[in-house]
Amino acid sequence: MTSIKDLCILGIKPGHDGTAALIENGELIYSLESEKDNGRRYSDFSGDTLLKLMLTGEKQPNVLAYGGWSKGSDPEGFSIEAGYSNTDGVISKAVTIWGQPATYFSSSHARSHLMCGYGLSPWEQGRACYVLLWEGYLGAWYFIDENVQIKKIGDVMTYPGVRYAFLFGLADAEFKLKPGLVRLSDAGKLMAIAAYAQPSGVDLEGQELISRILSTGDIRNTLDKEKLKNSKYYNCGVTSQKFSNVARLLSDTIYSKFEEAARSAIKLYGKHPLIISGGCGLNCEWNSKWVDSQLFEDFFIPPCVNDSGSAIGTAIDAQHFLSGHAKVKWNVYAGESPYDDNPDLSGWDIFDYAAPAFAKLLANGAVLGWMRGRYEMGPRALGARSILASPSTKNMLAKLNKIKKREAYRPIAPICLANDMQEYFGSSVPSPYMLHFRNVNSDKIPAVTHVDNSARPQSITPENNADIFELLVEFKKYTGLGVLCNTSLNFNGGGFLNRLSDLIHFAKEHGLDGFVFENRIFTPKPKNIP
Predict the structure, then answer these.
(1) How far apart are CA 227 and CA 247, in angstroms?
(2) pLDDT above 70 coverage of the chain, percent
(3) Is 368 helix (H, G, I), strand (E, B) or coil?
(4) Of 36, 233, 339, 359, which has the fewest CB atoms closer than 10 Å, so is most exposed?
(5) What CA–CA distance (Å, rounded) separates 215 from 234?
């Protein structure tokens, strides 16, 4: 075994949601995602991402941990390195990198999810736990024992994420992809639409549609939109009531199948904590159902639960293989610091940042950008790359969706003082990564209240984000509300912004009332009035 103090590990996630992660001496130093810094959403791993990591000034890695993947649309087809789904073995060999001795490591994509969740979880190494891995392709239960040995309990369903997203494409006239393929962004939209369902139920044709989508067999046949041309759900419109109802049925049916399998597993292995891994872990409704089920001793979902955490997971897997240590120290703000690329500032009034002044602008109805400190890992905006606004009027929801160029049916998330979570959302249980639904029990925050009275709040303490905590405290002094609207700071179809020129461009194009960049507040200069 190698001492953990001697390991500097570069983890790489190839394919979509490409990421480079650096773990040194058992601590996550960086996690840089190719889509961020205004890249294309879900971008493949790029040389630019690797170059950014090299320029951070950290020492040269002595372990290269390359995540397994596959070529083409079939995850079980042509394997890249350790491949996609096998969890039984890894690749490790001595190599020379730039003239220096090093170790090359690769393990499967499935292991990257499992080890990311395990390595970031708050429990001591050696505590046995269940892991639910559900994503685009994989849908299975696993058990990680006291010796960090992975045992697959059993498959529940292949392609759960693809099946879920396909339904949205079926109803959307703009969806024209080949059989078996989906748009990565559609799953989140379907989650929003399901909230509009009414208890009137789904007719027999809708029930048969769900059975077809969830049936076994080649998804290029079962998920072929053109073979469903005669269905009344074909291009029916994603905001139609009948579609909302069938979306709810699909969501409930998928969850029920996995819960049934969980109950069977618990009979064999007993009650243990649960880790959620894979992109379906972004479904806040399902996450809340797992908590409400009370089947597990404890519960953890990493903020990078989708493929953005896979580079971290492969690096943790390498660390465990080489040193025996499967846990890392980490902070969710593991991305890059904002970059001042010296754009033209002639159209802006600039002030030193002060939380009371910024809170007053928000209290007066301003919509403001927020770019302070290193960006957050994973897809949720957690108070480092955000658009912030007051939640006190329903009109603010429509305004923010217009600014973001998003569909009107999509909700805006709240960011809330942890001590006020009980008042607004009926539970004081922490929600630091915006991955659970809570019922809103206040009529004072309509901009963050979805049609079904739900919200996915982020709870804020001085420890997890001191700057946002201070801002919320000041905003509460002006308004009595310890809650703000919080949505991601990005162009439609792009990743989080990370440089001043892009922030200025966004503010001008989308009509922000100003923004903060690190320690400066920017507001537009008043236009000359004749």
Answers:
(1) 19
(2) 99
(3) strand
(4) 339
(5) 18
